[in-house]
Write a structure and sequence with these properties.
With 300 residues, the chain is mostly helical. It has one domain. The protein starts with a helix and ends in a 15-residue tail after the last helix.
Length: 300
Amino acid sequence: MKKSCLAMLITSMLIFGTVGIFRRNIALPSAFIAFFRGLTGCLTILPFAGKRILKCSDVPKLMLSGALIGLNWILLFEAYNYTSVSVATLCYYMQPTFLVLLSAVIKKQRLSRLNILCTVISFTGMVLVSGVAESAQEVSLRGIVLGLGAAVLYTAVVMLNMSTKETNGFSKTTVQMGSAALVLLPYLLATGSFSGLTFSGNTLLLLVIMGLVHTGLAYALYFASIPGLSTQTIAFMSYMDPVTALVLSALLLHEKMSFAGALGALFVLGSALVNTVFNEKETKNLQVRPLKQPFPQEEP
């Protein structure tokens, strides 16, 4: 049972790690891709949620977090357009650092020395990844800001989910993805985005794959794996997502990373991993119900 759950989790992480590659090859607006992904994901996961979704007690909060997820996807997809997949992914992985800082402000949680150290290391790594320390490297400030904005929105999503009582991942995510699509629909209609869309055979194929595989299948595998694994295993394995994105962006998109950038990537991912594992241990020590996230830490 544990081996099969681990295999499902690893498969879902590997799929999530290819999102940026697919986005780069879909010549459609980010808002439409986010809408299609939310709609397809909702319809795909709905059968797994079953009648449980009718008993969901936190619909307003889940709808709000779903709206934030839709906006989060748009910012992340736009970040892929303005900077490399590797830089956008690493910006997105500032989320654990933002979560610690925001919890300290909103929940008045005291920052430990380890939290402070990880925060400093994470921001140092982000500076190295961005390239601002290297005058010879072109800096895409817009892409970096978009990636960090996506991380901030996802931090808000995680905090909203921490305040909900619903523990069934399938029902939570069905509501959230449906809400993401519902919020984006008026914007697409108001801007006339549907009328200007053109689909080539290749674009349509990639879009369908992103909806069915990267959203529906990947999240179904992720949630199916959760009951048979520890939260620490899930947290650790979630870092296969950014590593996969970094490797594939180098191999398929020929994105190069300097020594300073590689060191920064190690700082960002390492501090995020330590923060995640440390916070989960503290949660157990305080005997607080551990968070069952609607998405992996990287979830684009």
